[in-house]
Amino acid sequence: MHKDLLRLARGERAVRGHLALCLAAAVLAGLLVLAQAELLAGVLSGRFATSALGLLALVVAVRAALGLLQGVAAGRTVAGVKTALRHRLLGRLRDMGPARLAAHRSGELVTLTGRGLDALDPYLSGYLPAVAVAGVVPVAVLVRLFAADLTSALIVLVTVPLIPVFGALVGMHTKAVTERQWRALARLGGHFLDVVRGLPTLRAFGRARYQAEVIARVADAHRAATMRTLRVAFLSSLVLELAASLSLALVAVPVGLRLLSGSLDLSAALLVLLLAPEAYLPLRVMGNKFHAAMEGVAAADEAFAVLDERADPPAEERAEQRPATGAGSGNGATIGTVTGAGLVTGAGLTAGAGSGDDATIGTVTGAGAMDRVRAGNGADGGAAPEIRLENVTVRYPGREDAALEDVSLVIAPGERVALVGESGAGKSTLLHLLLGFVTPASGRVLVDGVELRELRESRADELAEPAERTENGNRAGPAGLPGLMGLDAWRARLAFVPQRPHLFAASVADNIRLGAPGATDAEVRAAARAAHADEFVSALSEGYGTVLGERGANLSAGQRQRVALARAFCRPSAGLLLLDEPTARLDGRSEAAVVAATRELAEGRTAVIVAHRPAMIDIADRVIRIADGRVVAAAPAGEAR
Q1: What are phi and psi of 362, to 5 degrees?
Q2: Does pTM top 0.70 for this prediction?
């Protein structure tokens, strides 16, 4: 029995009812076999009149109706469990973020959420009802056999345990073989998807034929694993059938001899011969269903392993690593405040005396930034937040070096900051930190004085417990955002433009309104105009209704980037703008359009921009240089160049 699946089924109210109905129908249909055998034995022996055949037909009809009811309830149970598990799995993958998702091959995750969870059908609709029947019907049959014939009942009592014993011995081997088959299938799906995605590159370098050979080898390995699994399943069925047949022979031969000698009457003999197979049948069926369900069990194990994957350090570890308020220590960089002239006017924002090798780095608030701070709001009323990092260290699983190490930083409301540095220095990690995709191993990230970790924990509480509802029925959420909780509420306040935005196989308008599903067509067009995308979108065959290829295959890199910027413009309530090298790999004309749109988008918002090119750095009020996961320098944008 898979405890996690059963816990999931019990936790879903609709699924719980369907599962209970399915199991009850299966058990009741199994118990009716006693009445069926009793009536048939009585009619054949002459103990009951032939009119009892009508009652026998009724019992058979009821068993058929219960079988139909069991099938319907099992189908709804399967659909409910798979839907709930897929929702949880997709929600978990969303919350993991790209940093932790990098540890999983996307093709394997696609196989798991699709083909893998579909393999749960035999387990939920076949194995679970078989377990319920096997736990009740053999006991009821034994009780009736003890009342009919003690000798036969004792033989059945001794031989019945042989079925589950042999089934368990074979099942352990079957589980290992099936897990190998599932891993082969996941490897095939993952590698095939990777090859399809990289096919243009492979063809450009003449490696397509080699990868075709690799896929053939992986597919052959999966075929061999599948055939090995089927071979074990057929052999296990042979073992169970042989054990049951020998056990039945031990019952039937003595019954026949005693019937000939006259020590056993015909009615009891017929009843024993009709009921004895029913004591073994549920156990044999359970064994066969177990083999059919093993692929689903392996997929469920993998799914719950992803769901249970630890995202954050333990609470005790976080408490030990959290810096004390008061004295700054270690090698952290304490951020002060710099005026428009670029002079340090504050000794730092850490209370108490600094010690160790702390470096004081200023926060630039030039004239333009000061005006935005006085305004205090983003476009259309979205508050521009203050971002504060205090001695933050980020480590990725399986890596010894820290991605960010002891970073302290303050970004004022409405300030535009450019992050520069070599690839791998930690710039994108800092963005992922603000997005909530990664959690610091030590230190704190505060948004307007609220620790981002608290928002993560409120998100976890929301997933674990039903959320409260407001008066109008919406889910209650912080910051006056009905329907959102924790990290969801925080992410509703920001707009993120990645280096390689993903465009879906949907219309241009639907791609733009991805972050604002309720946006009207007029708002979508206004966002596109602001992002300098309206001209090329209008020139498409169906304008904003043109369906794009997956990943925006029929658009240029610059056009895809401007659609991503239009998404950000379509979120007027966003007070924080995060951009990860939006002009990378763009030509001069496309870069100029993206820079102009970004400059307008950043007005009135706090902006954190990962940039390499001078045109994008010019937008910033301050430039922060990161090297080896540390902040090494900060200066006004003009001085940084």
Answers
A1: -80, 155
A2: no
